[in-house]
Specification:
Order of helices and strands of chain A: EHEEEEEHHEEE
CATH class of the largest domain in chain B: Mainly Beta
Radius of gyration of chain A: 15 Å
Helix content of chain B: under 10%
Oligomer: heterodimer
Structural class of chain B: mainly beta
Largest interface: A-B, 58 and 84 residues
Largest sheet of chain B: 7 strands, mixed
Distance between the termini of chain B: 39 Å
Strand order of the largest sheet of chain B: 21-20-17-18-23-19-22
Number of domains of chain B: 2
Number of strands of chain B: 27
Number of helices of chain A: 3
Strand content of chain A: 35-45%
Distance between the termini of chain A: 36 Å
Structural class of chain A: alpha+beta
Largest sheet of chain A: 9 strands, mixed
Helix content of chain A: 10-25%
Number of strands of chain A: 9
Chain lengths: 153, 420
């Protein structure tokens, strides 16, 4: 096609990278890192809720953005989602995957409303406009079996 | 003086083979009705975009206007910049540093709180931009505003990005490519239905990744800023015709149009050419902080929907529509005739609801020689936990789209609302 029309929703593929040592941050981290995220982002954190096959920790940032962190039965944060007026601190919430994400997002693309990074070990979908963002990131290999990423509440 | 920026190597994914697209086709101005005219009417165009290294970038479904900026207080130190994107999804004028003429001197804005120059981290879905806040006198069509806070992107003096701004993602255009190329425009004219780009959230608590006080350009710390210090929707600072805008584009054929000429009209109900009455249009009252309204598509209620000239297609989820091989757009076997219903955001009052019939064509079959398409659509990329219908520029052809600024009175009521 119309290569030049690949605006606004670009799928940026890439090679998986070896994960650097775990830092205290959410995606791919353990449950304790969720509390760290909340503290770092000055969020108010709700008690976790259990859904079939995973638990959800929801926090609200001072801006009103709601961040949800999804924890597998193995105790790993396999996905994070956000919805609200500001982007979450992605360095905090993507943790060791942040550099990988920004490297992919730095590749040339057109349009600033819908960005998808799709790599074997990281999927990030960042959408929206200033004051109204929504997105999610997940690590495919950490998603519990029988859990559909599209059905996350 | 237009200094050409560096053009990084763009993958074929982005540019493709554009070489042969010489242009020369007359732009389509629509059947019959003469375009509006007046001091409050700015011509707008959908075309192949700004010229970089001697060639048009090759954009599609991006709407452009010319904006004149002057040194505050001067009528001679001025520059008219072409191919500024008209964006109903963002607020404020943002100019790319490499495009600015040295004959214009924009003034720094010193925050009242700390008497330091202001800079801003402005965040998009795909990353952030960073640069100083400056004031300019602005003219678009016959409308002028003085001392308007704007943002300059890519100012080389402001090379150090604060850490918490970097946490918002990648720097748009900052690393591998020229900023004009990254934005496919020489700047952005954000005419969302808001007055300031941040609003009350930034007036206290020095939130991260917004405004910064910079005693020196490399030493910036997050700062609270008053409403009048923030980057502002320039329309709201016009002396008249300042309560909203109308974007009026002619229809285009199913195959697309080589270029399209339309109008950006300032004011709602302030002149003889910009009236809007509640009974004659579909009116969507917006959530006052997000600007969302509700779209119902195939029975699914999408409460985070929006009309956005800064998106280049309809973006929505429909698993029954074949995506193109790279998942950027839809590629159904043949053009689909679809419909959806728009209604006001819940809790805002009624407005009206309206059914929109629209087409989605096979994006791969659309002509590479056209730049304007009313049938370009793509997947919205995620389902959970909330859903959106993004009515991008595909929606605007053959319509007048009215955008009323928050808190401003219009003949059809108080903004924020969209109407069409």
């Amino acid at each position: 096609m119309r290569a030049r029309l690949r605006c606004a929703a670009i799928v940026l593929a890439g090679l998986a990278q070896a994960a650097p040592p775990l830092a205290l941050a959410a995606l791919g981290g353990d449950v304790a890192s969720v509390q760290a995220d909340g503290a770092h982002m000055k969020a108010s954190v709700r008690p976790e809720t259990s859904v079939a096959g995973y638990t959800v920790q929801e926090m609200t940032l001072p801006s009103g953005t709601v961040v949800r962190e999804y924890v597998s039965p193995a105790g790993k944060v396999f996905a994070v989602g956000w919805n609200g007026p500001t982007m979450p601190d992605l360095r905090q919430t993507l943790g060791t995957y942040f550099e990988q994400y920004t490297a992919a997002a730095s590749a040339p693309h057109l349009g600033h409303r819908h960005l998808t990074v799709r790599q074997p070990d990281l999927v990030v979908q960042s959408n929206g406009r200033p004051r109204a963002f929504y997105g999610r990131a997940y690590v495919p290999s950490l998603v519990p079996p029988n859990v559909s990423i599209d059905d996350l509440q | 003086m237009f200094r050409l920026g560096l053009i990084a190597t763009l993958t074929g994914l982005v540019l493709g083979a554009l070489g042969g697209c010489g242009g020369g086709d007359a732009s389509i101005t629509g059947g019959g009705t003469p375009p509006p005219s007046g001091n409050n009417v700015a011509p707008v165009i959908v075309d192949a975009g700004p010229t970089v290294n001697g060639q048009p970038l090759g954009t599609a479904n991006v709407l452009f206007v010319n904006v004149t900026i002057c040194t505050p207080g001067s009528t001679t130190e001025c520059q008219t910049i072409d191919h500024i994107q008209v964006d109903t999804g963002s607020t404020g004028l943002r100019l790319i540093s490499s495009v600015l003429s040295s004959s214009v001197t924009l003034h720094p804005v010193n925050t009242g709180n700390s008497s330091s120059p202001l800079a801003e981290c402005y965040v998009f879905a795909d990353g952030y931009i960073w640069g100083p806040v400056r004031t300019a006198d602005i003219q678009v069509a016959g409308e002028t505003a003085s001392n308007v806070e704007v943002q300059v992107i890519g100012d080389p003096t402001y090379a150090t990005v604060p850490a918490d701004c970097q946490s918002a993602g990648a720097q748009v255009g900052g690393q591998n490519e020229d900023t004009v190329t990254a934005f496919a425009a020489n700047g952005i004219l954000g005419v969302a239905p808001f007055v300031q780009d941040c609003g009350s959230f930034c007036t206290a608590g020095a939130p991260a990744a917004w405004y910064y006080a910079c005693p020196s350009p490399s030493s910036c710390s997050a700062a609270s800023v008053s409403l009048i210090e923030q980057v502002t929707n320039p329309v709201t600072l016009f002396a008249q015709d300042n309560n909203g805008v109308i974007i009026q584009l002619p229809s285009v054929a199913d195959a697309g149009a080589p270029t399209v000429s339309g109008s950006l009209i300032f004011g709602l109900g302030t002149e003889s050419n910009n009236n809007v009455s509640a009974g004659s249009v579909a009116q969507l009252l917006l959530d006052p902080s997000s600007g969302y309204f509700t779209t119902t598509y195939k029975g699914t209620v999408l409460t985070q929907s929006y009309i956005d000239s800064g998106s280049n297609a309809y973006f929505f989820n429909d698993a029954s529509i074949t995506p193109c091989s790279d998942n950027a757009f839809f590629c159904p076997a043949s053009t689909l005739a679809l419909s959806a219903t728009n209604s006001s955001a819940s809790g805002t009052g009624s407005g009206t609801s309206s059914v929109i019939n629209f087409n989605v064509a096979n994006a791969d079959n659309l002509s590479a020689m056209a730049t304007a398409f009313n049938n370009l659509g793509g997947p919205a990329s995620m389902n959970a936990p909330t859903q959106s219908f993004d009515w991008g520029l595909s929606f605007f052809y053959g319509r007048s789209v009215y955008s009323a600024v928050e808190g401003m009175n219009t003949p059809a009521g108080v903004g924020p609302y969209f109407a069409y």
